[in-house]
Amino acid sequence: MEKIKSTGLVYGVEDKPDLGTTVVLGFQNVITAFGGLVAVPLIISGIAGFGVADTAYMVSAALLASGVVSIIQSKSFGPKWFRVGAGMPTIMGTDFAFVAPAASVIGAGGILGYFGGTMLGALLEIVLSYFVKPLMKFFPPVVTGSVISLMGMTLMSVAMGWAGGGFGSENFGAPLNIGIAVFVFLVIALLNHYGSRRIAPAAVLIGAIIGYVVCIPLGLVDFSQVASAEWFAFPQLFKFGVPSFKLEYALPFVSGYLVTVIETVGVMQTLGVVTETKLSDERIAAGVRADGFGSFIAPFMGSGPAATFSQNAGLIPLTRNASRTVAIMGGFIMIVMSLFPKFATLISIMPLPVLGGAGILMFGTVAAAGVQSLSRVDFNNRNMIIVASALGIGLGVSFVPDTVAQLPGILSGLFSSGISAGTIVALLLNIILKEKDETAAA
């Protein structure tokens, strides 16, 4: 990996902070991703009709699998021909791209059909990882800059939903929720800007803890869920039985894995920018391979497919911490949390406005990193069209996803995500629109 222009990281990719700092920053990584980590297993449990005990196990299994795969992705293992993991600071978790097909598969083959189908589909992503390198020539700066910007912009709706108290909640948008989000936002911004070298990287964690504590006397934290959770739970392989390996259960997940490949390439490129590291095509391919490998082994533990989380890409430039040692520690923390349901529940009941205040800064920072990347692009007519189209369609799909919901077959899956839709448009236009000598045309 080659270093590029520095923008002031406190800890680089290869830096190893002291143990105390590593634990604190690793915990910060987990907290900022926790909502995404537990949301999908809760949804899948609901689709499967699970009771409280099985639902709790699914959440613990998701944390266990996410921790294991995060370590693999961040550390990088294996021989050159089957290198798994990009060796970049990454948090992995279950992905929403697989929720829609999961509903139909679980309806036909139950939870074992879901696990078997995702395992077979994961083999497709592993195969596709070997074709990432030749595809990278289609990702010039005008495409990657658009994708990075789009990644931050599309996630902003998630952050605003958190800030309001969670879409669908009875008090969504209540002044109290907005006030908490603003308070946490300001605490993190001030700590990040004025804090010392030790305080600034942990600004998100400190802000979240302060916001959490403030919410307790306001009656926004329900500790009864913590009291009812188990103290300790052993992981179990194939708790629900042996997965059902049928092609009919795998086909619905194909579009989800194609979307995951596209998004993971975008996340890896974003990580390269925010960690000030020039990633080789082989590293990016190994990152995609880790997604596929993680999705294959996750059902062994009782979890769904694993994917590279984009939230972490926003945390890095904001906290100026790019140490992969910290991300690996985050993986170990998730594994420990999976063994102690009470501890995991204590984090999961954090009021959403607290996460919203942090999310606005994190995701906004990703969008700003994309704008910074695009500032180095020559904005001629061709590049302007590519950027405008990628952002316009990507944001449009994110704002009004029902517009593409009735597209036939695999197209519906590929364009269901604003990030994948914008990336596909940028890639296609980059191929279709040829460079031309605009001075001669003038």
SSE layout and pairings?
Blueprint: E1 2-3, H1 19-48, H2 52-75, E2 92-94, H3 99-128, H4 132-135, H5 141-164, H6 175-194, H7 203-215, H8 224-228, H9 247-250, H10 254-274, E3 277-278, H11 281-301, E4 306-308, H12 311-319, H13 324-339, H14 341-348, H15 352-374, H16 381-399, H17 410-414, H18 418-432, H19 438-441
Antiparallel strand pairs: 1-3, 2-4
Properties at a glance:
442 residues; mainly alpha; two-stranded antiparallel sheet; two-stranded antiparallel ribbon; 19 helices; 4 strands; 67% helix
Short description:
With 442 residues, the chain is mostly helical. The protein has helices at residues 19-48, 52-75, 99-128, 132-135, 141-164, 175-194, 203-215, 224-228, 247-250, 254-274, 281-301, 311-319, 324-339, 341-348, 352-374, 381-399, 410-414, 418-432, 438-441; strands at residues 2-3, 92-94, 277-278, 306-308. The chain contains 19 helices and four strands.
What do these coordinates show?
The chain has 442 residues and is mainly alpha-helical. Helices cover 67% and strands 2% of the residues. It has 19 helices and 4 strands. It has helices spanning 19-48, 52-75, 99-128, 132-135, 141-164, 175-194, 203-215, 224-228, 247-250, 254-274, 281-301, 311-319, 324-339, 341-348, 352-374, 381-399, 410-414, 418-432, 438-441, and strands at 2-3, 92-94, 277-278, 306-308. The strands form 2 sheets. The chain has a two-stranded antiparallel sheet with strand order 1-3. Helix 16 (381-399) packs antiparallel against helix 18 (418-432). Mean pLDDT is 82; it is low at 1-5. One of its GO terms (cellular component) is plasma membrane. One of its GO terms (molecular function) is xanthine transmembrane transporter activity. It is found in: Cell membrane. It holds the Pfam family Xan_ur_permease.
